[in-house]
Amino acid sequence: MDFANLASQLNAGTILPEGIVIITLLGVLIVDLIVGRASSRWIGYLAITGLLGSVVALYFQWDSSNPISFIGAFNGDDLSIVFRGIVALSAVVTILMSIRYVEQTGTALAEFIAILLCATLGGMFVCGASDLVMIFISLETLSISSYLLTGYTKRDPRSNEAALKYLLIGAASTAVFLYGASLLYGLSGGETQLQAIAHGMSVANVGQSLGLVIALVFAIAGIGFKISAAPFHQWTPDVYEGAPTPVIAFLSVGSKAAGFGLAIRLLTSVFPLVAAEWKFVFTALAILSMVLGNVVALAQTSMKRMLAYSSIAQAGFVMIGLIAGTDAGYSSMIFYLLVYLFMNLCGFTCIILFSLRTGTDQIVEYSGLYQKDPLLTLALSISLLSLGGIPPLAGFFGKIYLFWAGWQAGLYGLVLLGLVTSVVSIYYYIRVVKMMVVKEPQEMSEVVKNYPEVSWNLPGLRPLQVGLVTTLIATSIAGILSNPLFTLANNSVTHTAILQPPSVALQNANINAELYEQQ
């Protein structure tokens, strides 16, 4: 095989965005090695520049005529571009909120950013991987980096405990997912590429075999862990409470988006013959996630644990779009994850800022905060109300779109349960807002009474301010000016071959499988 033919088959330009992230990662390590701790003042900006460059590269790859690369192992279609963009943007905001936080913990910023970029790289590859080997390597890159980030503040016993729990549960979920992948490899006759697996199983007529059902259950277990869906949520509350707050901000958006991106690609490509079965399983997961997440969140006293259970409930809402299995369903998932990126990271930025100034994240300590810090109160109120689905904020339109897609698909019971649990969630969100805004001066908490004077001139606070204002503005206007995001979500679905009608998708699968065999 000559070099020109090999280069055309590799089509390495498809992973240019990931290449930019790799170069940025190497640049961060080299600069830190040469300059040392003195680089911590601007090394975060270097990483942000690289990530934004990666997002720009993704923009120019939109509607590519040849998205398949590395002999079918990676698919840079429009669906993957949107999910990769969500992962990269979540890393950008995470770095903005990390600089002051990491410096205050006394740990090295460059290593933290390097590990975060590794996690970002893994998440971006997961969103486009269409080969079992690449899926597994990408998942492990994301997972191992997440374990390291969770235990990064090694002097904090809670961080160590969270990292250990996350590692043990994550290792178990990885083993289960890998066993499901090995079953797919065997059932398809030794194929690893997703379209070739679907073709191999259709030829072997194993559509309703026990092995395929077991592989499906194991694959869903691995995905459920990544998106923190009940009953695979056991790690979520403890990790959210013990891990550094910027880390859980990234996990709540970046890791969840990667999990849903993998779910759409894997389920629609490999398991179309058992679509009724996987939709039934995800219906059970959605019901459990919405009920457990919202009900248990009512009893939480810590903001981080409350947002942990909120994250579980949000996964349940997003699964409605996945279960619908229509263009509107997938579009609603993407739209909700786009607005969830802004509103959730806005909330975590507020929690970081409050904890930096007070040293606590207990809900009762927010009493009377409006008297001392109006901007923080406004931003946290907007983000929580948006998460609750209060109009005209972004979260309201995201939930309406999800519920509408579910209703069109005939998921009446699931949509009604989603509406009821949304009402429940509004209670614990508004409780925090009421505590911050309505409390009389004499009911102010001791922490707020001793609240330091608001100043943005301290080292590392300017990036935090930029992240706070940016996410606040995006959360506020993304609902009112949501049409561009709607269009982006719809186009990413309609331009993606694997989400076309079954007859067209099967034809594409057979064509891709034949090409794969020829190569």
TrEMBL record:
Native organism: Mastigocoleus testarum BC008
Keyword Thylakoid: yes
Location, primary (coarse class): membrane
Residue ranges of domain NAD(P)H-quinone oxidoreductase subunit 2 N-terminal in the record: 12-99
Any GO BP annotation: photosynthesis, light reaction
Subunit and partners: NDH-1 can be composed of about 15 different subunits; different subcomplexes with different compositions have been identified which probably have different functions.
Catalytic activity, as annotated: a plastoquinone + NADPH + (n+1) H(+)(in) = a plastoquinol + NADP(+) + n H(+)(out); a plastoquinone + NADH + (n+1) H(+)(in) = a plastoquinol + NAD(+) + n H(+)(out)
Mode of membrane association: Multi-pass membrane protein
Domain NADH:quinone oxidoreductase/Mrp antiporter transmembrane: 129-424
Known function: NDH-1 shuttles electrons from NAD(P)H, via FMN and iron-sulfur (Fe-S) centers, to quinones in the respiratory chain. The immediate electron acceptor for the enzyme in this species is believed to be plastoquinone. Couples the redox reaction to proton translocation (for every two electrons transferred, four hydrogen ions are translocated across the cytoplasmic membrane), and thus conserves the redox energy in a proton gradient.
GO cellular component: endomembrane system; plasma membrane-derived thylakoid membrane
GO function terms (MF aspect): NADH dehydrogenase (ubiquinone) activity; oxidoreductase activity, acting on NAD(P)H, quinone or similar compound as acceptor; quinone binding
Name of this protein: NAD(P)H-quinone oxidoreductase subunit 2
EC number: 7.1.1.-
